[in-house]
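User: For documentation purposes, I need each entry recorded in a consistent format: the amino acid sequence on its own, followed directly by the corresponding structure tokens. There are two entries in this batch. Please keep commentary to a minimum and don't merge the entries.

Assistant: Recorded as requested. Entry 1:
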Amino acid sequence: MRNIAELTVLLRERVALPDHFKLVTEEFREGWNFVLSGDAHWLDKKIRRCGWHFIRIAEGSLKSGVGPLPQEAIANALKLALRCVSGRFNAAEVGLIELKAYPWFVLATVRVYPYQIQKSAILSMSDEPVWMPPPGRVVTTDKRGSKILATL
């Protein structure tokens, strides 16, 4: 396994990329692959040159893992942090790595930031269409908790 460092980028196995855009990747775990070609800054430049967008989503997830060696502890923490990345997002960046060595193991703390690689500059809030009531109407609940459409 490769050394995992800050700014390392991972992609989901079946991520859609611009036509003729080739990346060298290496399998990690649970449907994620390392991008071996470069870091997050490099990937952002390459994707934007193709007219696509590399969008950082929000706060990352912070997880810890243990192992007998630093890289094994980092890999275990990274695996846990990637499990917190929503299935809607197709990329992630390792933003922070902290190590603490103990006599018989190493504790690693890793922060992972989710990203979305997509053609559109607009990030949809959900894969499901958003339904809004027509103007002058609201959705409310009755005494039993059932949703009803009411006219103002």
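Entry 2:
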Amino acid sequence: MALHLGRKRHAPARRRFWPRWMVERNTSTAKGTDTTVADRPVAHRRRSRHWWSSRTNPVSAMILAAGWAAVAILAFGMLLTWADANPGNSVVDAVLDAGRWLATPFHDVFTRNDPEEQLYINWTIAGAAYYLLARVLSWVVRF
């Protein structure tokens, strides 16, 4: 005698080549009659039962967006420095000020004779640290 786990005894066996989450088990069309649609695949989106364990957690998304914003500001500041942008311009000055503020904890991690090379190295380390911190915090908040 075989065990029938997850399906009724009178229901036909599902095809083996379709993943379990793509096949609906039972649908009732009329009162008291059950028809199975295991013979054809029915694609549907599987939803998580709890919003805090899914990938669409709004707090987790905001933390990850803040990390990406910090990385974007640092990368844009490095790009402006590499392109020798005019620091007298208000947009360039604002981006470089925000980048300096974000990279303050990583100011003298590596010292070089060339100040631009030192900026590139330290701001890259700061961007990687902010990205990793945002990923870890967003992962922790999901649970």
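Summary note for entry 2:
The two ends are 41 Å apart (CA to CA).
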